[in-house]
Automatic annotation (TrEMBL):
Species whose genome carries this gene: Dendryphion nanum
Name by which UniProt lists this protein: Heterokaryon incompatibility protein-domain-containing protein
Bilayer-spanning residue ranges: none
Heterokaryon incompatibility domain boundaries: 1-151
Pfam families in the record: HET (PF06985), Het-6_barrel (PF26639)
Length: 552
């Protein structure tokens, strides 16, 4: 059984083996749904089959999770009561219904993908009801739970149950059809809350459904990063729930033992050291996220990722795939030493600049978003264009630098042309959807002029720009440096923080001097140093000097 545990206090009693046992209400509901009135059926559920009060047994069983779920005949997923599809013809099975809409998205929505708002207004009541129901189903708590990544990912077969009646669907079919719709109609899918599932990107058995030609090459750091928005009640499970993945195996053993007698701080500390020892780069440092000043200044080492579930801030330098496209260190090998007595990390590199000005944080949207008045405050576009570093640029230079920074260089070579059109549409909507257009300052956010912006926006999509940028810059700030460079970085950055190239690091990092040592503020993106340009100046000139950074 795969289900959401829910609140620890939300439990019900069942009779099991002749005794009363208190179990999560969700599990009780699931068992009532699947039990047969006369035949014995055999199930495995962690809340019953593992002694949850014995931390040693829990750790031992977690070690066995991969074999338990991969050996099972089938994994049954309980998504909960409620059925938003109940208004459709009950004689049509759910798979056929979903197939009918998802495999013919253009006829269903009767609109171009680039105009999702038009698709919403033109959609029939049946179409609107269906995609709202599908969005409701895919946003159920089960899809956000971390443990289900391996529970569903390792299974031979996965059956999803939900609703008050006998609603069920093969989970592979559900995700395959939803994925097809997301690929063909991303703007419309985003409006209805139909998002790609991480469950089908991480394990070979499932990933082949949506990516038939893909080969699973994720390492454990990739896995930790990709699942960073999946939830678990115990912070130690942010690591332990992934130990069934092939990447968790190193030299015939697990990358870390599931020991519930250790604190989550001890687990994160041990894992960070192991990840550094197993690699020749600094990708693990890119996973560090300090969400506020208290987080940055606490006694815990600033260079250790905590894997906290408080935001979905995208990293530039964690992913192996993205690191193939960035070489800020220009191939300089890593030179690193860990001082265990002081939890100090000694890294060789050089400082090349300092933070000068910066904007407010670019905030995340929630749910179904349109580009409206709230974005005047939430997305400080006008404030960014008013920074001193932009003052000497032409309108086109300003727009290109800003767009590239907002997507952190992602696909910038082939995306930039369309991105500029989408950015024009986005900025025009910022103006037209506010009660007072002058509040945004047309001259500030339309440096190319209204006519040029309108011409570019004809082939642009504000919603596409929002989706592209929010995934990369949400939770970050845009900044400029003393020498006029432009970039994006963590929300805790401040004027005077030091921009550094750390040898072995694919991206630049931001450090803050504290006495004779440094705190790691986080990774940063600066377009003009991502391919080793600063290292060229370091090697050929005398602008920068090598030093050892003691990071605590």
């Amino acid at each position: 059984m795969s289900y959401v545990w829910g609140s620890p206090s939300d439990k019900r009693a069942i009779v099991c083996g002749g005794r009363k046992v208190k179990i999560p209400t969700n599990l009780r509901d699931a068992l009532q749904r699947v039990r047969h009135p006369s035949k014995v059926k055999r199930f495995w559920a962690d809340a019953i089959c593992i002694n949850q009060s014995d931390s040693k047994e829990v750790g031992h069983q977690v070690r066995q999770m991969a074999s338990i779920y991969s050996a099972a005949e089938r994994v049954i997923v309980w998504l909960g009561f409620g059925n938003a599809f109940e208004f459709f013809d009950q004689d049509e099975d759910l798979f056929t219904l979903i197939q009918r809409f998802c495999e013919h998205p253009k006829s269903s929505t009767d609109s171009e993908e680039s105009r999702p708002s038009t698709a919403m207004s033109d959609a029939s009541f049946e179409t609107y009801s269906f995609f709202s129901a599908l969005g409701d189903l895919l946003q159920r708590p089960w899809f956000n739970r971390l443990w289900v990544v391996q529970e569903a990912g390792l299974a031979k077969s996965v059956l999803a149950l939900f609703g008050d009646q006998d609603q069920e669907i093969n989970l592979d079919d559900l995700i395959r059809l939803a994925h097809k719709f997301i690929v063909e109609q991303p703007g419309v899918a985003a409006y209805y809350g139909i998002h790609p599932s991480r469950l089908f990107l991480l394990f070979g058995k499932r990933s082949a459904i949506v990516h038939p030609s893909s080969i699973d090459k994720l390492d454990f750091l990739d896995l930790l990063n990709v699942t960073r928005m999946q939830l678990a009640s115990d912070p130690r499970d942010f690591v332990f729930a992934l130990l069934g993945h092939p990447s968790a195996q190193i030299n015939g053993g697990l990358i870390i033992e599931p020991d519930y007698q250790k604190s989550h701080w001890e687990i994160y500390h041990e894992l960070a050291i192991t990840l550094l020892q197993q690699s020749q780069n600094l990708r693990v440092l890119s996973a560090v996220r300090h969400l506020d000043e208290d987080n940055l200044t606490r006694e815990y080492p600033s260079w250790i990722p905590t894997w906290e579930r408080t935001s979905n801030i995208n990293s530039v330098g964690v992913s192996q795939y993205r690191c193939d496209n960035t070489e800020a260190h220009a191939g300089f090998p890593r030179s690193l030493q860990f001082i265990r007595a002081s939890n100090m990390l000694q890294v060789h590199g050089f400082a090349f600049d300092t933070i000068d000005e910066y904007t407010n944080e670019f905030r995340y949207g929630t749910g179904r978003r349109s580009v409206g008045k709230s974005f005047i405050d939430e997305w400080p576009i006008a404030a960014a264009m008013a920074l001193r570093a932009f003052s000497t640029m032409s309108a086109q230079e300003k727009l290109y630098e800003l767009v590239t920074a907002l997507v952190c260089g992602w696909a910038s070579v082939f995306w930039a042309k369309q991105g500029l059109k989408d950015f024009a549409a986005f900025r025009l909507q910022m103006l037209t959807r506010t009660s007072d257009p002058k509040q945004a300052g047309p001259c500030e956010i339309l440096p190319e002029g209204l006519a040029a912006a309108e011409e570019a926006a004809e082939e642009g999509s504000a919603q596409s720009f929002l989706a592209d940028c929010e995934s990369m810059v949400g939770g970050k700030r845009l900044f400029t440096t003393r020498s006029g460079l432009i970039g994006t970085g963590p929300t805790v950055l401040r004027s005077g923080d030091i921009c550094c190239i750390l040898f072995g690091g694919h991206v630049p990092f931001l450090l803050r001097r504290v006495g004779s040592a440094y705190r790691l503020v986080g990774e940063i993106y600066i377009r003009k140093v991502m391919q080793g340009e600063a290292v060229t100046d370091f090697v050929l000139g005398d602008m920068y000097r090598s030093q050892i950074f003691n990071i605590f």
